[in-house]
Amino acid sequence: MRVAIAGAGAVGRSIATELIEGRHQVMLIERESEQFEPHTVEQADWVLGDACEVSTLEESGIELCDVVIAATGDDKVNLVVSLLAKTEFAVRRVVARVNNPANEWLFTDAWGVDVAVSTPRMLAAMVEEAVSVGDLVRLMTFRQGQANLVELTLPAETPLAGKPVREIALPRDAALVTILRGERVIVPQPDDPLEPGDELLFVANAEVEPEIRTALGY
Residue 131: its pLDDT value, please? Predict the structure, then answer.
């Protein structure tokens, strides 16, 4: 993929490095001259300019990008970049960084955002996941809240121990996608037995999360 990242601060550069290691083409757009440091990510294309300006985006050829990531430390900038990328240049996928959780409600398709990533929310979810056993933890939200990635760790006394996956009566809008067991990542098959300590990952509509708890006996 060709990916454009608005904001070449620590976050933008880290994302760029990861994507380059994954063999993607990356372009970094930075408006502050003191943060314009091409030597820090030499494999990326660098553009000095304001990503909130249509002229900058035109000159950078952003319409050729498969993904735009608005990764600055300013939520207002990230929203403007997202809106321009989606409405003016028809970029297929727009990902935006949410710095202030209070602004998260703004990061929807109305502003051109396909995926909003809130670091504070993700960190909180990771803490919950680390300490919660026997309850659903929401790890990530997709498509402006239409679907969530949720996790539940089976406790030692789970009534599901030894039962096959096919006996979990999940609601219609939920799917068990992965079982984490120790160091193993298991793609669940209908006859796979469940074990205490299994971490179950589901993709589900938020409205059916209570039904998932019920199906798992909680």
Answer: 47
